[in-house]
Amino acid sequence: MEERLKRIKGEARRELDKAKTLEDLEALRVKYLGRKGALILFIREIGKMPKEMRPSLGKLANEIKKTLNQKIEERKAKAKERRVLAPLDLTLPGKKPSLGGLHPITQVLNEVTRIFSRLGFRIVQGPEIETDYYNFEALNMPPGHPARGMLDTFYLEKVTSHMIRINRGIGESGNRGSSSPSHRFSVSPFQHSCSQLLLRSHTSPVQIHVMEKEKPPIRVISLGKVYRYEAVDASHLPMFHQVEGFMVDEGISFSHLKGVLEVFLNELFGPKTPVRFRPSFFPYTEPSAEVDIGCLICKGKGCSVCKRTGWLEILGSGMIDPSVFKAVGYDPEKYTGFAFGMGIERIAMLKYNINDMRLFFENDLRFLRQF
Amino acid sequence: MKVPLSWLKEYIDIKLSSQELAHRLTMAGVEVSHIQKSGKNTILELDLTTNRGDCASIIGVAREVSALINKPLKLPKINKEDKRKKGIIKVEIKDRKGGPRYTGRVIENVRVKSSPPWLKECLKSMGIKPINNVVDITNYVLFETGQPLHAFDLNKIKEKKIIVRRAKEGEKITTLDGRKRILDKSILVIADGKRAIALAGIMGGENTQVTNKTRNILLESAYFDPIVVRRGSKKINLFTESSYRFERDVDPEGVITASRRARDLILKLAGGEEVAFVDRNFLPRKPKRITLRRERVNALLGTRLSWNQMKGMLKKLGFKIKGGSVEVPSHRRDITREIDLIEEIARIHGYHRIPSALPGGKITSYSQEPLETLAPRIKEILIACGLREVINYGFISLEEGKRMGFAPREIIKLTNPLTERQNVMRPNLIPGLLKNLIHNLNQGNSIVKVFELGRVFSPKKEQMALGALLSGEGDLYDLKGILETLCEELAIPSPRIGSASLPFLLPGREGEILIANRKVGLLGEMDPKVLSYFGTEERAFVFELDLEEFLLSRRAKRFRELPKYPAIVRDIALSLPEKITSEEIVQTIYSLGGELVEGVEFFDLYRGTQIPSGHKGLAYSISYRAKNRTLKDEEIKRLHQRISLGLEKRLGARIRK
Fold first, then answer.
1. What pLDDT does residue A175 have?
2. Cβ contact (<8 Å) for A129 and B364?
3. Pair (A284, A169) in one structural domain
4. How many domains does chain B fold into?
5. Residues B506, B499: contact at Cβ < 8 Å?
6. Is residue B560 part of a domain?
7. Which range marks the domain in which residue B594 is found?
8. Using the beta-carbon criterion (under 8 Å), do A101 and B412 form an inter-chain contact?
9. Beta bridge partners of B497
10. Testing the interface with B: which of A153, A156, A203, A306 to mutate, by most B Cβ within 10 A?
11. Facing B394 at nearest CB: one of A174, A227, A232
């Protein structure tokens, strides 16, 4: 009988060692010390045993009961202290909150804006519906100019009175317009009932809008959609985003154009990105420069993305042409300035290694979630 | 344009590797887009900017290379005599704007046959099919000098007369490519005594084509106006090597050189004899002169170049300098102003040698437009609400616009759409959001929660709009909650929903969004009929805001003192007729409770067995608080009781226990 008692004691000990949680310990107590617990049942049986065995067995059994009870209680107290709950499988995935996210184009635009804000540029938005005058003529592209061919344009059916308005930051020297709180948008409506309406094919018209209303010094960037009459494929869409920037003041030189764009490109693509400027042609800048960065994919060795040249064309720029200044009534002898423009989709494609431009406006959530 | 290296080397000694040469040209603004090896020959592919028509020839490129590497040009030897015999051909220029210079040269007794192999090879490397020696020579000289030429069969020219004039309305001509073309007054033609025989500067006509039977030819070399050629070319949709060059403005002095060069080659390869030459010229003959200021160059470029350095660079490019005055060579039609000379200096000096600098000067203070500062904030809030940003095209189809309830006259149409699916400007954002929904459902993305911030267009104006769509998860109240959150975060008074009837929303589940009693947008569940037109049976909830109107009611954020005394919250459950709105109940509670009612929060809507039919169960938590003391239980009990009774009396509510 004593053997049996010791066996119960041994088992209880072993199980006690393994028990970790409050639940385990309670189960153990019930198993041995509960109303139908093994030890309790044994103690009840003692009465039926031969008389001479009873005292010693009884004593032993009660001692075991007492220590076991004590140990369980101690362990329970400890478990409570450590609040040991059932262990979790932490390799199971976490529960993610359902977050939204910004479109990758917006993310790149924000990045570009951040860098130029630091350099003192402010944001001005221009209309997507423009007139021939702002999109071409004032930018030194009179009717018949060959450069118009590079900007294949969507035209709009005549409407009687379309208002073209710009929202703009109010510069120190700009007219402040109405300051009443009920008219917080400095909207400058003007009508072009007789002018041909079109979808702007670049963001450069914003230069004209701003300079028509403000005097230098000016540092402005403008971002938004532009439209080109182009068939859709992996690298062409009839609509894309551009950032336009320009700076006008006394004494601005080509050196400044280089300095500002180098800072910008090194911040956007990394401090060691090589940048080169090469002569090009835009009707609204002179001298004009195409700006390339060392290919991000092959690091300048030559690959299919950079067409084996080691360089990627990233933006167009130049000193604002005197004829543009004349169109807005600035004295080109007094003021000089530079301007630049770039396509945002192209930058996003390079930055995120996206190979098909169409993905941007399909808005497939599996695509959008990756940024 | 293609430039075979072997051909280029006929006019200049080049020791550089083709890569190095390509690099030098590119960095001087004559971009070599790639280098192609074909057999033994290397071909540079040039991507010319529209201003550099002077480089659209092998000699033109050689001239540029000569300036870059400081080597002299080796030009072909040309006989400078012309047989100016009168009476054989008459040239009359009727349109002096379109064709201010026309030369015609008559060569008789030529033998038209196939060209020698070197000439055929030359044209093939330029991507041109050899035809016969006379035609091939005109093409050869076009590529060599950049001056387009044309040879007519003299015997086919009626009345031996050349007239440069605009086409008559509806005049017809069959061009050398065999296509019949109907012309109008915008197109400049070359005509004989009877009919049009060529599209000036674009392509010759079949009626005067040089064939193997031709004996006598008239060789045309002319200057046509760039804009006239460009418009004509665009009008009839015909772009040729010839029109490419005229559009970019050819060298008016090169007209004669090219004609002589072609004559020399024809006499050599086809025999015959030159009998007459006519030159009608209405172009100004004086070379252009421009004043150049050294300080201006350095100020604009940020350089410290000496006058001698500047002069040296310009001389290499063929400019002549006397004092501060610069004479422009006739082939540089793009150079008319001082700034153009400055660009030439920058280009030859090398952009990489211009130092970089950051502008000093003062940074002006400015206040950014509310829209520019708030747009990013609005996006942040919506993202935090779990919505994803989408960007859609600015155009949709007219049919989609109509489904949105817009009459065709309220929609701006494109005159030259790419496709019928994108032929109008979007009057609102909903069609784009719906297309995003359909695309995602088709891809197996069943939960779609998106927003877009973009322009919408009406014939009167364009404006910024904000649209949102929920589908697959949540309902109209979830969407309204997002709208309310947006208002709270932007310090805009909470929106009210007024009744409205919109053609694309479900009746009874639609409304206009009112802020401070001004209409700023709409909200509702999409009508299944519209959804099915776009291609889904799923439910979808949308709102759209006119962003400017929406932001007008924005207030400045002001801190409110935190309460010093505790609030007491009591719930109230009501059974009411269906027609009573939650808004009425809340307003009634406020008006009954007075200033001690701090807030009323809805927490349950119930319809079921315990509520009589035609009624609904609503439950609210009312929080009571006084500013200056702790409220007593007894006081709250009385007030809560008063509110309960008031609701029963005013709204016919029954208090549920």
1. 37
2. no
3. yes
4. 5
5. no
6. no
7. 568-656
8. no
9. B513
10. A156
11. A227
